[in-house]
């Protein structure tokens, strides 16, 4: 597991690219500039690790495009010490970004293979999520609620009710909603039954599937 000078250079170029695409949050840019994305990917894609693109990982899933990771993370407005829930651990790259921001991260993955690989891998890089869970993200994580923010990293055909219910007042849910193409959607909980919804652009994710596998 090597992180070379060359990788660091490529990473700074990637930071410039996503900055040019409109990401302004300095903490998010710093995290992207710091995390060795090439180590989260299959060796056959190493040369592409610092392109602003999604790539295949194990179990037919993908590591999200860095711009998408940055865009979603920016919408979460993470503050140090925030309790955060991620649905779709995947490669653990987004989890690492949240750890870099000082969040207490709970992350759920429905593919056992990925759950196992990533649970072993993240601590090796020094990223310690509060808890990685093998389970179904549609249900959220009631026993740890409420969360300051929740991020869904797979395309949701609808907004799962438990996720809204598990937000703290003032909490933020960032979720791509749609079947083939998803609209990035932000819900801010204004009161026990009051949510403010804002829609952003279109993105493409692998589908949020029910149950575990
Ligand atoms: N955050 C990841 C993105 C991985 S792609 C990364 O940075 O690499 C989306 C992930 O969501 C996949 O790993 C997929 O298996 C997972 N997923 C899909 N449906 C899910 C569900 N209901 N609960 C938990 N994880 C789910």
TrEMBL record:
Q: Which SUPFAM superfamilies match?
A: S-adenosyl-L-methionine-dependent methyltransferases
- Would the keyword Methyltransferase turn up in this protein's UniProt record? yes
Q: At the top level of its lineage, which domain of life is listed?
A: Bacteria
Query: Which keywords does this chain's UniProt record carry?
Result: Cytoplasm, Methyltransferase, S-adenosyl-L-methionine, Transferase
Specify whether Membrane is a keyword of the entry: no
GO terms for biological process, alphabetical: methylation; protein repair
Q: Catalyzes what?
A: [protein]-L-isoaspartate + S-adenosyl-L-methionine = [protein]-L-isoaspartate alpha-methyl ester + S-adenosyl-L-homocysteine
Q: Which family does this protein fall into? A: Belongs to the methyltransferase superfamily. L-isoaspartyl/D-aspartyl protein methyltransferase family.
NCBIfam families in UniProt: pimt, PRK00312.1
**Name of the molecule in the record:** Protein-L-isoaspartate O-methyltransferase
Q: Which organism is it from?
A: Olleya aquimaris
């Amino acid at each position: 597991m090597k992180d070379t000078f060359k990788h660091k250079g490529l990473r700074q170029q990637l930071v410039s690219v996503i900055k040019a695409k409109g990401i302004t949050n300095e903490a998010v840019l710093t995290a992207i500039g710091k995390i060795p994305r090439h180590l989260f990917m299959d060796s056959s894609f190493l040369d592409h690790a610092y392109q602003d693109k999604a790539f295949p990982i194990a179990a037919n899933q993908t590591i999200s495009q860095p711009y998408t990771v940055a865009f979603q993370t920016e919408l979460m407005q993470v503050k140090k010490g925030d309790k955060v829930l991620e649905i779709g651990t995947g490669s653990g790259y987004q989890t690492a970004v949240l750890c870099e921001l000082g969040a207490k991260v709970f992350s759920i993955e429905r593919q056992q293979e990925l759950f196992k690989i990533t649970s072993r891998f993240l601590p090796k890089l020094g990223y310690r999520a509060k808890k990685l869970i093998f389970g179904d993200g549609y249900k959220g994580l009631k026993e740890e609620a409420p969360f300051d923010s929740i991020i869904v990293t797979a395309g949701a055909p609808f907004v799962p009710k438990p996720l809204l219910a598990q937000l703290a007042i003032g909490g933020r849910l960032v979720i791509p909603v749609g079947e083939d193409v998803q609209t990035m959607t932000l819900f801010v909980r204004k009161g026990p039954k009051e949510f403010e919804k804002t829609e952003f652009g279109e993105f493409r994710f692998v589908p949020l599937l029910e149950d575990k596998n």
